[in-house]
Amino acid sequence: MGSINGSDAFAPRYIAQSYNHADSHASALRLILTLNPHWEGPENKVEFVRFTDGITNTLFKAINRKSGLTEEEIDKDAVLMRAYGNHTEILIDRERETNSHALLARFGLAPPLLARFKNGLLYRFIRGRPATHEDLVTESVWRGVARRLGQWHAVLPISAASPMPKSGKGTSLLDSVEVAADGLPVKTDDLKVIQPRRPGPSLWAVLQKWILALPTTTEAQKQRRRSLQTELERVVREFDNGEGLGEDGLVFAHCDLLSANVIILPSEGRPEDEKEVNFIDYEYATPSPAAFDIANHFAEWGGFDCDYNMMPTRSVRRGFLTEYVRSYAERRGIPQSLQPEIVDQLCEDVDRFRGLPGLYWGIWALIQAQISQIDFDYASYAETRLGEYYAWRAETDGMEGKEKPLRERRWAEA
């Protein structure tokens, strides 16, 4: 199979072309026909189905509706084309995304990666339907998510996603952040850049890069960035401790398990209450504490509207984590007798991590508010998500005389 740590042997084909938003159909067709030259000719009928069109990416499904083919046969040869949005390199390491996809495909956890092009990827289509946030709270679905996430965390080597620097020392986090969201060169000002325990990519390194990329045009923006850096320093002191599942407290995590990235597969003979799912979109995948990936997924149960009434209660979280640990332990050879203790610890860890997704997506949304061109109020979303983080801080710091916010109340329910 080749070296787990070396990505060269698994590098996908490169097509030296670009997708052009202004010339969408023609540029997409050129890419698809370069990949599949046998789709050219009068007997072929190439069509595109647009799934998403946003700042982070544009996603097409390319199909060849040749006469005589069934829908299943058409889907079997279908190709997904993901084109990156403008300026998203500020938020997303595209090289790492490609490597993550190739790694996942080798373990059967992602569709085969067919090719890269100048501003995107081409990969095989998988049948199924994207979940809704209402699906996520349905037991048959959340059990499927728990099983698949346990498999991810158990089998994927973080060394492939997080190669040690050749020097053996940590590389500067500034190396891959050239401009901030306001288009100006990144300045550290008086920020003390954090150094995570483990060199290379990680949740902590991503958060640091994002804070460094925040705009600093006004004094208020500079103050906001300093404040968030202080929070990051505190979070890293408290949470980057090498404890938890995986290697040095880190697993290969998805870090963006919102409903649309959970694909519910066709039942195909399975009982209706045993859903099987796959995960898509690996833009944010990176080594992370398992408890963060799980807490981050639970945060998505409320959808983009942040409906905190949908948050999982303690008993539901324990059910999810029991299913997750069963899947994880099966693949790591952990005896059944030890699993209840792992579930107990994970319940505590996920509870501790519940505020961190708010910090993560709050910082992300502050950057999106500067670079995004789609019709979404990222500035308000940033305040909502950061509000979750600060409400969690107030709760864990022993808030006196104030009513718990809804999210905290729901989380505490049995």
UniProtKB/TrEMBL annotation:
Pfam families: Choline_kinase. GO terms for molecular function: ethanolamine kinase activity. GO terms for cellular component: cytoplasm. Signal peptide: none annotated. Its EC number is 2.7.1.82. Pathway: Phospholipid metabolism; phosphatidylethanolamine biosynthesis; phosphatidylethanolamine from ethanolamine: step 1/3. One of its GO terms (biological process) is phosphatidylethanolamine biosynthetic process. InterPro entries: Kinase-like_dom_sf. PANTHER family: CHOLINE/ETHANOALAMINE KINASE (PTHR22603), ETHANOLAMINE KINASE (PTHR22603:SF66). Belongs to the choline/ethanolamine kinase family. This is ethanolamine kinase. It comes from Aspergillus mulundensis.
